[in-house]
Amino acid sequence: MYLIHGDLSEQHVRQLAEELLADPVLETATIGAAPPTSDTLIEVHPLPGVMDPDAEAVELAIRAMLGAHVEVRTARRYDLHGTDASTARLVAERCLANTVIHSIHDQPYHPEAFVAGSPHDLCIVSVPLSELDDAALVKLSRKAHFFLSLDEMKSIQAEYRRLGSDPREIELETIAQTWSEHCVHKTLKSTIRYQEQITDAQSPRIPIRGRPGHEINPDGSITIHNLFKSTIVAATEQLIADGVDWCPSVFVDNAGVIAFDDDHAVCFKVETHNHPSAIEPYGGAATGIGGCIRDIIGTGLAAKPIAATDVFCVAYPDHWSQSPRRARRRLPAQVRQLPNGCLHPRRILTEVVAGVRDYGNRMGIPTLNGAVWFDDDYVGNPLVFCGCIGVMQRKKISGDPQPGDRIVVIGGRTGRDGIHGATFSSAQLTDTHADEFSHAVQIGNAVTEKKLLDAILEARDHPQGCLFHAITDCGAGGFSSAVGEMGRHLGAEVHLDRAPLKYEGLSPTEIWISEAQERMVLAVPPRNVDQLRAICNLHEAEMCELGQFGTDGQELILRYEGREVGRLSMNFLHEGLPQLTREATWNPPVSRGLDSPPLAAGDRPNSIADTLLRLLAHPNIASKRWIIRQYDHEVQGGSIIKPLVGPEGDGPSDAAVILPLLDSTRGLAIANGLATGLRDDPYLMALAAIDECVRNLVCVGADPSRIALLDNFCWPSCDDPRNLGALVRAAEACYDGALAYRAPFISGKDSLNNQFTTSDGKTIEIPPTLLISGIGTVPDVSRCVTMDAKESGNLLLVVGCPASSAIGGSHFEMLSGDSEAGHSPLPAVDLNVAPRIARLVAGLINDGLVSSAHDCSEGGLLVAAAEMTIASGLGLQLDLADLPAEDDPPLEHRCFCEQPARYLLEIRPDDLAEVSSRLHDLPGAVIGTFNSSSRLTLAGDQLDVSVKELQAAWLGTLDW
Amino acid sequence: MPNALIITTAGINCDRELAYAFELAGASAEFIHLNRLLVSPQLIDRFELIGLPGGFSYGDAIAAGRIAAVLMRRRLYRALADAIERGVPIIAPCNGFQIAVQMGILPGPAGDEPWPSTPPRPTIALAHNDTGRFVDRWCGVVVPPETRCVWTHGLTADDPSAMLPVAHGEGQFVTSSPRSLGRLERSGQIALRYRPGDNPNGSVGDVAGICDASGLVLGLMPHPERFTRWNQHPQWTRLHGPSVAGHPLGLAMFRQAVAWAAEAAAV
Questions:
Q1: Helices (DSSP H) in A16-133: which residue ranges?
Q2: Which of A789, A784, A762 is nearest to A873 (CA)?
Q3: Which residues of A touch B235 (CB under 8 A)?
Q4: What digits encode the pLDDT tens for the residues A757-791?
């Protein structure tokens, strides 16, 4: 439905219906409301102020056709058959609309006029801060959605007492945005007093002595000065000092930058957009990827985005019911009532996939790597990780604004949408957040972002040289963060009334902190402004001059219609945040609490085949084809290794490989590692994730000496010392892992308040979640291999750490729920051996000795081997008698333990001698032979199952 | 060297690889934004080849390609029709195809008729895929031996490596009547079909691409510009020997049209 408001003749309306709005072959148009064809009808309209991307395009087309300026809104109508009004309403709320952004009508809705804003009457509000006591400061911080701590509020108070004035509202807001956890990552940068009480031999002690920024106190506790700098950054700095010379820009820009070839660099950033995605998954995910793409455009003097990644963590779709209690009697025991204020996990996953699809595909950026992890503790607080990779010339990897540069904004208009996104993401979710924070939720407009990308790349590559000195994106905190950050050493003067608005009525504060999407801020020398404007006009990218960088005294001066509405010292804004000391403890759990109740004997798998089929069908392991095929993973033409491989395109690739430059043979591999199963010791979890990421990259042909990593921590509240202790352990593992693999971290992000408080006051904390993302250079893409087995008669070789009975955290443990569950040790990465294995495998691949390679991860060796047959259709005869193993584990553990640092390699029989000699002292053995039987068998009649059956189990679960 | 015009506009995103395919095939390529062409349609006159790239023009608001098609119908149709009469091969993959059919340059007038002065009403459409969702995958394709398409005529059909990638949500080829499909078939205007059983979107007659009566204008849902190197093929790590001899199918199409344009220029 298109609602059009404007002065149009009947003939014009008919013309629009026939020539613009309806397809003459497929559709008919109705002018006015068609009579209902059924018992009930539902109309879904966007709420006033909600982005309506199609409406903008229709207005443009009508202007071109008729020269008429009209206003358009789009809506959807559903005629529902066989339902009553209340069922229709329920269907609308659960499937067709989200009341955070939509209104639902059961009659045709034809308003006389659209809701419009009215001009803002300027009134400058001072906040009487100096008189407030502690309780009042805390109350103000929460009520105004600043989410600042008492200490932080008190330092602001002290600063204004020193100045002898009260802050104006816009100044307080600026400080709150700049000091938000989201923008400044104050927890990771704080001083931490860490204590661990480890009695269990399975939980390794962290080797603290000699680490930069760590002090051991007399009482045995450890003081860590700036956890981030002392672990993740420290490892990168040590590696650079030790000869890693390909990291020209790390941790300083919107993305980390590594050298790619002599002339080019690539950059990578991964962001999360968790809280918006909990409330409005489609818009939350779309604006998540949109924001991450802008990070890449805002790196150096603008990189060109060439690939995107996405990882989602959600609750098990089958475990949650929204039905009334009496209707749930027949449901399985593990099904629980969905808490108030949560969307159903199936809806969340479906809509985040749609959001990434619609935004990424429209931007023309291939989405080619990702993962989905299921855990019921994500029910109220799902995680949405969006990554983007860009390519740029090495001489354009940095830029600095100069005094006198114009502050130029390109892209979307500013509206009230997205206000307080930065502080919202730093808060904890509760059942009422959908109401309280609906304004932080947004819908993206990918075409606006594509237009600004086209314009910016043209300005960057201008024949007279790049037209701007610096660029950054408007993300969390909006103009306040972007301008505040760019002008931190120069000061800036901003005229807020110059920003183009979506509608009237925004206060200067709202303009300043709005996080409206699709906007970039540039520092442009005055002489280049006209040329830039001409480029923007051609691409229909809106541009405005907001002010100028450089003030006396490095101040931030905010004006509206000529009047000063705010003035802040850049120094206080960026340096005034009080340094906190936080407590962190680590007590390993005695018995690891498993989520699900122990299974009844009859529900446990009863054979190797049964276990294997159930593992393949487990949502964490099962094919994600349903998601992958909805993403354009080949646009830009650089595809080398696709996310799905094999003759039928069914095999799960370990990593994707692309050509960043079409006329080169040098490739870039992209992968991730996530080992949330090992959450009971985040140190082991983080090492396993790093190892998995490295393995994935190596399996397709990446050079292990040119791998760069990103960390994304999503944690429950770190006000709880135990959660902060878990974070310390994970960060320390990043230090050890990066050094061991010589794989530097180049960028990262954290999101530290991921928990959900239900209406009855229970808090559901998410599992501590660390996503490791990695990129690796592939020197020559003709050497790449895929994971699908190639030829009958070839051998299957396992290389890597011995199998063991450390099945803690494995999917086998989750599935079997036996009495041992929760007590089995967690597997550990052997950092002395694992990097050597990675180099060995990379060498074998590079020398053409490997026909297919697959990383052994979720589900263990047998699942990985099964995937190689599923991908190829070949049969495989396995014999695990020679499998390298510790302590003679039982067959199930040999098959399904998730020992890290293991690879499965297909080799030709003729090459066995050569490969064996290269193994040297590293553990490895031939465990099977591929054949043309299309059956997977295990010696001793332990397993005989057809590849078709494996395929059906693997493809069936998430075939949505 | 023939010069190819690549028409870009808001939301178009397959322009670079399209230009690259032209370059690999021996042409030079130049981008011009639609907003410039709408003001100066005569800019088209100096090109020997034209590409309408894929993407999501104007976000595919209303329907895929609709807004761009409405803008081009009004200001660019005539200049494009002139170019076709002048003998300029045009390729329109994916969003370009969706635009071309709604703009009125496909299927074009019958063989013996001139191009009408104003754009005709569309008689074919690219509807939503029958699965109801966007799909990215490679499909086996067949070139009908009787096609008159300059781009595809004579290219191989039986080789299992004869595949092209598709990536679209609205690619189901539909004609206004069964008769019009029959007419296209009889006049050799079916330029490309999906291999039977490999039809990704429910297109009638497995039609993947059509051309106008002159064979110059090719509209197709698959992306030949994404198959100009063997290692773009989804099974390249399994292909050996004769199956990777010669040019990949996508590049072969561009080479054929560029050679045609070069020859036309020489005459």
A1: 53-66, 85-91
A2: A789
A3: 646-647
A4: 999 899 999 999 999 999 999 999 999 999 999 99
Q: Of all residues in chain A, what percent carry a pLDDT higher than 70?
A: 94
pLDDT of residue B46: 95
Helix (H) or strand (E) holding A546, with range, is: strand A543-549
Phi first, then psi, for residue A461 (nearest 5°) are -95, 20
- The Cα-based distances of A105 to A44, A108, A291 in angstroms read 7, 7, 32
Res. A424 pLDDT band, cuts 50 70 90: low
Helix ranges (DSSP H) in A394-477: 421-425, 433-436, 446-460
Over chain B (267 residues), what is each successive 10-residue block's mean pLDDT? 97 98 98 97 97 98 97 96 97 98 96 93 96 96 96 81 95 94 96 96 98 98 97 92 83 97 89
Gap between the Cα atoms of A548 and A256, Å rounded: 28
- Chain A 62-81, CB below 8 Å of chain B: which residues? 64-65
Nearest alpha carbon to residue A608 among A927, A955, A894: A894
pLDDT at A80 over 50: yes
Secondary structure of residue A91 in the 3-state scheme = helix
**Structural contact between residues A234 and A712, judged by C-beta atoms closer than 8 angstroms:** no
Residue A721: in which H helix or E strand, if any?
Answer: helix A721-741
Contact criterion met (CB below 8 Å) for A258 and A244 = no
DSSP B3: E
Dist. CA A13–CA A889, nearest whole Å: 76
8 Å CB contact between B96 and B52: yes
Element (H, E) at A341: none
Strands A543-549 and A563-569 come out as unpaired
Give the chain A residue nearest B20 (alpha carbons): A662
Contact call for residues A100 and A441 (beta carbons, < 8 A): yes
Q: Is residue A533 helix, strand or coil?
A: helix
Instruction: Give pLDDT, residue A819.
Output: 42
A94-141 pLDDT per residue, tens: 999 999 899 999 999 989 888 877 888 888 889 999 889 999 999 999
Residues in contact with A508: Cβ distance below 8 Å, sequence separation at least 6, in sequence order? A120, A122, A170, A496, A497, A558, A560, A565, A566
Instruction: Output the six-digit token pair for B175.
Output: 């004609």
| Among candidate residues A132, A133, A150, the one with its CA nearest the CA of residue A141 | A150
B263 tagged catalytic: no
8 Å CB contact between A249 and A268: no
Provide the b/e sequence for A421-460 (b: ≥16 CB within 10 Å): bbbbbbbbbbbebbeebbbbbbbbbbbbbbbbbbbbbbbb
| Partner A contacted by B178 (CB < 8 A) | no
Q: Which residues pair with A72 in a beta bridge?
A: A4
Name the minimum distance, in Å, from the CA of A830 to any CA of chain B. 32
What is the amino acid identity at position B50?
I
The answer to whether the beta carbons of residues A768 and A440 sit under 8 Å apart is no
Strand partners, B166: B137
Q: Beta strand A71-74 with A2-5: parallel, antiparallel or unpaired?
A: antiparallel
* Measured torsion, CA atoms of residues A719, A720, A723, A727, in degrees rounded to the nearest 10: 40
A690: its two tokens:
């790093």
Closest by Cα among A372, A352, A188, A315 to A766: A315
User: What's A261's DSSP letter?
Assistant: S
**For chain B, what is the largest distance between any 2 Cα atoms, rounded to a whole number of angstroms?**
51
| Residue A830, phi then psi, degrees to nearest 5 | -85, 100
Picking from A794, A750, A755, the residue whose alpha carbon sits closest to that of residue A930 is A794
- Asked if B237 lies within 8 A of A785 by C-beta distance, the reply is yes
Structure tokens at A914: 């050569």
Q: How far is A382 from chain B (nearest CA, A)?
A: 24
- For B59, the closest of A57, A454, A788 (CB atoms) is A57
> Comparing C-alpha atoms, which of A273, A374, A302 is closest to residue A523?
A302
